[in-house]
């Protein structure tokens, strides 16, 4: 089993280090990449460290990613927050001298030389924080901000089931050690334009909710245009539909006409959905998953499977009452 000691050994060994993360970046993936880069650089100023991948303008407050260096000789790659090779946002994966995976997703496949996977961690930022404290690395204030934001975002403000006493302990230590002024950091994460609130209202108004507790909506490009929002906006607000009496599982489906693909994001407040997501070219966590399919039939089949799941979950709930 890979330990933090193994990871620090390889970080010390290599002078060139690249950090990558999953496609369609989210705050945990981005913050963990930039924070790890900053921690390595401040503790080992002579090393060249690059956090790479496509930049997302929505999260530019976190920092800017680097271009992949041309020469990858004697270079260590650390892949964060990504369970399978197809979702790593990097080219030339085969050219690295050594590869390390650090992740909190359920295991999908082994693709790195050593892999540290902690499914019980709330977020990859939590693992990086744990790693830094366990190996006595200094955490600078920029890294502290990023790690706090990544944890808050991936736990949906400490409400998701993988938020544990350990999460709180680590965050407590981070805040007290660095004197982190954390209240202003919520601004970056949660301030948004009115048009996004308006499309959220549209979704609430127009979502279909089945008698079994499945909520779903297909959001086409006309709606995105009408509200003047980014195509990724609806997906970013999916967590706001938790804690609704009538809804157990909820799904947003966006049709990307140009790439001929349906992007699906789904959440659950009970039944495990990632097994169904993986049937439809997707995956993710037990209660937070995503998928991509090519046809409307596949979308309909996915919704049928999820509706059946809700029906069984309701049945079990009633039986256990
Ligand atoms: P999202 O709905 O994009 O916030 O993603 C929720 C979870 O599902 C994250 O852990 C993602 O890594 C995972 N996920 C999203 N889309 C896919 C996909 N197409 N394939 C595999 N996992 C996915």
Structure description:
There is one protein chain. The chain is α/β, with parallel strands linked by helices and 321 residues long. It folds into two domains: 186 residues, Alpha-Beta Complex (inorganic pyrophosphatase (n-terminal core)), CATH 3.90.1640; 127 residues, Diaminopimelate Epimerase, Chain A, domain 1, CATH 3.10.310. It is built from eleven helices and eleven strands. The strands form two sheets. Strands 6-7-8-9-11-10 form a six-stranded mixed beta sheet. It is globular and about 60 Å long. The termini are far apart. The mean pLDDT is 96. Adenosine monophosphate (AMP) binds next to strand 10 and strand 11.
Question: What is the averaged pLDDT score?
Answer: 96
What fraction of residues sit in β-strands?
15-25%
CATH arch. level architecture of the largest domain: Alpha-Beta Complex
What is the structural class?
Answer: alpha/beta
Quick recap:
The protein has eleven helices and eleven strands.
Write the layout of secondary structure elements.
Blueprint: H1 4-13, E1 16-20, H2 27-43, E2 48-51, E3 75-80, E4 98-103, E5 114-117, H3 124-134, H4 141-154, H5 165-178, H6 185-190, H7 194-206, E6 208-209, E7 214-219, H8 221-227, H9 233-236, E8 249-256, E9 261-268, H10 274-279, E10 282-284, E11 288-293, H11 296-319
Parallel strand pairs: 1-2, 1-3, 3-4, 4-5, 7-8
Antiparallel strand pairs: 6-7, 8-9, 9-11, 10-11
The structure holds adenosine monophosphate.
Residues 22, 26, 105, 235, 265, 282-285, 288-292 line the site of adenosine monophosphate.
């Amino acid at each position: 089993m890979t330990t933090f000691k193994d990871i620090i050994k390889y970080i010390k060994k290599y002078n060139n280090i690249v950090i990558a993360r999953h496609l369609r970046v989210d705050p945990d993936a981005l913050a963990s990449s930039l924070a790890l880069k900053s921690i390595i650089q401040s503790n080992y100023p002579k090393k060249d460290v690059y956090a790479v991948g496509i930049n997302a303008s929505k999260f530019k407050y976190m920092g800017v990613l680097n271009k992949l260096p041309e020469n990858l000789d004697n270079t260590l790659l650390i892949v964060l927050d990504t369970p399978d090779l197809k979702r790593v946002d990097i080219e030339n994966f085969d050219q690295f001298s050594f590869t390390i995976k650090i992740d909190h997703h359920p295991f999908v496949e082994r693709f790195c030389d050593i892999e540290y996977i902690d499914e019980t961690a709330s977020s990859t930022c939590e693992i990086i924080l744990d790693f830094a404290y366990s190996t006595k690395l200094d955490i600078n204030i920029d890294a502290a901000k990023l790690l706090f934001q990544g944890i808050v975002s991936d736990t949906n403000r400490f409400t998701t089931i993988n938020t544990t006493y350990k999460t709180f302990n680590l965050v407590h230590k981070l805040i007290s050690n660095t004197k982190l002024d954390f209240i202003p950091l919520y601004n970056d994460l949660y301030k948004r334009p009115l048009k996004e609130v308006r499309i959220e209202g549209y979704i609430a108004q127009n979502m279909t909710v089945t008698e079994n507790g499945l909520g779903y909506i297909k959001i086409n490009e006309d709606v995105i245009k009408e509200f003047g929002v980014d195509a990724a906006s609806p997906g970013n607000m999916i967590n706001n539909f938790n804690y609704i009496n009538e809804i157990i599982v909820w799904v947003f489906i966006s049709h990307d006409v140009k790439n001929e693909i349906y992007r699906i994001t789904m959440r659950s407040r009970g039944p495990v959905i990632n097994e169904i997501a993986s049937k439809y070219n997707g995956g993710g966590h037990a209660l937070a998953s995503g998928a991509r399919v090519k046809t409307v039939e596949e979308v309909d089949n996915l919704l049928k499977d999820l509706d059946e799941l809700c029906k069984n979950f309701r049945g079990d709930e009633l039986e256990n009452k």
